[in-house]
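Usage example:
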Amino acid sequence: MSFREKSAWITLIAILLVSAAFLFHAPRLSHPGPWDFHVLLACIAAFAVIEIVSFVVLRLRYPEDARTPIDERERLIHLKATSLAWGVYVVGSFLAVMTLHHGASAVVIGYLIVLAFVVAELVKYGARIVYYRRGV
Amino acid sequence: MGGTNISNRIRQLRFENGEMTQQQLGQRIGVTRQTLNAIELGKYSPSLEAAFRIAEVFGVPLERVFQYNPGKTPT
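Running the assembly step on the lines above writes:
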């Protein structure tokens, strides 16, 4: 498994963990309050910590792989995965805004757009892993 | 996705050149071992530049390394 595939796995797992923690601690989106915002900030901070610590450990464990520059196949994989994720984000954001016509508040729409972003990121890193496994 | 209609003789050429490893060849042409493995297995078609670099490393013409099989349907 290449260094960048390991990195993709780390990010995918980190997003899943942090998203699960957020959904578990802030399920009251119909009545959002300051507490939910604090949970969101804590989750972003937790994600950053998980990513930084994991990447430092990964770099120390595989120094040679970490120094290898990204090659043409990896660039293509990133491009294809990002393209896929962009589509998911656009559709998700559009659906989030559509909830405005069903009486959703601005805060709920905001959280739904964040959800669309999170799902798009999951798709991006999931697609990268699939492409790494398949060849492209 | 995951297959091409281009076959190659990289494995054989590596064998004929002192059992060169995928890592060594990858370093010489500027790709990772995993990418070289994907090329060898026909899962990824390299860029023209990478293909020429591979041929250059082995000192053979491009067509000795890669063969186009138009009848084969990519998977």
